[in-house]
């Protein structure tokens, strides 16, 4: 087989890009205005209201600057994020970011599917009297919910890219209605002042740096999907400001509601329990009824439309013989299987927390290397035709740029070590410090080696 075909890259030409500013904005609002964001808001309630809001603004702002930067890379090249990663990791070496992207987006799909399936168990309880998940016999409703959600995902894949845009547009309207509805219910029972002055039980208090890392892992997960969507835009502004604003509005909006609702329940019940901060449990405790559960299911679809697309693109980059549609089918099936892990493990919160630790540890160094390489080394000028050329400039040694691979390993280890430092835990978090160090090292080594190569050529 011709190697150039084996590593071929699908780049969208500008005359075939029709995604508008509103479509891009709605895509990223819908991606973040979902159950996982709500749940994260409930988790950072352990920082208290003020601490949670500060961490949310800081971590989200920094993370989505990277989303905008990667978004421009998609606009400039017309390629997916994982195809673009070939320039900094090598054509074969891009399997590392692709594998990370594949696993993390399968994980996010599973997270949203699990929460939606929990809502389905409440719906089945209302319709047929089945036990709710968390009660004896409740696993049946959850399992049926997982299967139903997976079927809905497969239907959206079959319908194609246009269906995803329709899902996003409908979903954003439902999200707006639902958030307003829940906000009214929350602040009807508990005042904003009570929520703002609520004190976290000392045994459950989360350190500020840990909250930064939790939110950074959550937000950076979207960064490696950025170009997958901005490559369908024909304006640079649409590829940068729309993802930043959409993602920030979505994450702040829903995390704020999750944070406020969790604290309000802690105030009224006298008990704070992060296990009860998933949307289905909160909606049930607030008495929002079956309509709320249906909306939770639909908003899961809007988020997973992005998750599945990103995971499918990663798999397609790893195995170019697979069509994108086949890749999407495979990742949907894999996500369904992964969704059962919390059922087996016994705790959704513990599984979710472990997943966030994994994402934060492996993702930051990849994003840092890609951004530094494109903007500071390549000066925003990648040769797209070379991304699939096994004899070209991005082949490096054996298809791998070993510098990137080595710094990625270093970054993973450094993250793990930084998290053990008290100051890091209490104040800054490890994620962004890790990214800065890896980025600076990559830039310095690349500049030094390029200068040596220039000297050799001159001699």
UniProtKB/TrEMBL annotation:
GO molecular-function term, one example from the UniProt record: cytosine transmembrane transporter activity
InterPro entries noted in UniProt: CodB, Pur-cyt_permease, Pur-cyt_permease_Fcy2/21/22
Membrane topology qualifier: Multi-pass membrane protein
Species of provenance: Pediococcus argentinicus
Family, per entry: Belongs to the purine-cytosine permease (2.A.39) family.
Keyword Cytoplasm assigned: no
Locations listed in the record: Membrane
Keyword terms, alphabetized: Membrane, Transmembrane, Transmembrane helix, Transport
Keyword 4Fe-4S: no
Name the record gives this protein: Purine-cytosine permease related protein
Cross-referenced Pfam families: Transp_cyt_pur
Domain of life: Bacteria
Primary location: membrane
């Amino acid at each position: 087989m011709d190697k150039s075909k084996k590593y071929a890259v699908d780049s969208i030409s500008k005359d075939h890009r029709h995604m508008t500013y509103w479509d891009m904005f709605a895509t990223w609002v819908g991606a973040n205005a979902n159950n996982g964001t709500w749940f994260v808001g409930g988790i950072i309630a352990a920082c208290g209201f003020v601490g949670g809001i500060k961490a949310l603004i800081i971590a989200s702002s920094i993370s989505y600057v990277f989303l905008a930067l990667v978004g421009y890379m998609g606009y400039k090249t017309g390629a997916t994020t994982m195809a673009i990663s070939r320039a900094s990791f090598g054509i074969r070496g891009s399997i590392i970011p692709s594998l990370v992207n594949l696993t993390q987006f399968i994980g996010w799909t599973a997270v949203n599917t699990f929460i939606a399936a929990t809502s389905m168990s409440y719906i089945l309880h209302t319709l047929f009297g089945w036990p709710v998940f968390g009660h004896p016999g409740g696993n049946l409703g959850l399992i049926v919910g997982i299967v139903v959600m997976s079927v809905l995902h497969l239907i959206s894949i079959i319908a194609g890219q246009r269906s995803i845009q329709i899902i996003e547009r409908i979903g954003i309207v439902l999200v707006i209605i639902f958030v307003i509805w829940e906000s009214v219910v929350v602040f009807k029972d508990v005042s904003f002042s009570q929520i703002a002055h609520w004190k976290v039980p000392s045994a459950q208090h989360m350190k500020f740096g840990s909250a930064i890392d939790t939110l950074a892992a959550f937000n950076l997960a979207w960064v490696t999907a950025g170009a997958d969507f901005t490559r369908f835009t024909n304006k640079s502004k649409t590829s940068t400001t729309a993802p930043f604003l959409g993602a920030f509005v979505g994450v702040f909006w829903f995390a704020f509601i999750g944070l406020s609702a969790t604290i309000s329940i802690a105030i009224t019940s006298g008990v704070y329990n992060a296990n009860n901060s998933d949307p289905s449990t909160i909606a049930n405790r607030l008495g929002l009824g079956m309509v709320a559960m249906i909306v939770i299911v639909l908003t899961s679809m809007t988020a997973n439309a992005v998750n599945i697309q990103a995971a499918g693109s990663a798999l397609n980059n790893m195995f170019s013989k697979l069509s994108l549609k086949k890749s999407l089918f495979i990742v949907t099936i894999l996500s369904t299987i992964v969704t059962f892990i919390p059922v087996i493990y016994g705790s959704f919160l513990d599984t979710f927390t472990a997943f966030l630790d994994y994402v934060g540890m492996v993702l930051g160094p990849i994003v840092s290397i890609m951004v530094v390489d494109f903007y500071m080394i390549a000066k925003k000028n990648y040769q797209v035709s070379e991304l699939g050329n096994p004899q070209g400039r991005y082949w490096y040694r054996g298809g791998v740029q070993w510098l990137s691979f080595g710094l990625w390993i270093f970054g993973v280890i450094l993250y793990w070590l930084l998290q053990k430092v008290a100051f890091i835990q209490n104040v800054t978090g490890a994620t962004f410090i890790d990214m800065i160090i890896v980025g600076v090292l990559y830039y310095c080594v690349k500049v030094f080696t390029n200068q040596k190569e220039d000297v050799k050529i001159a001699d």
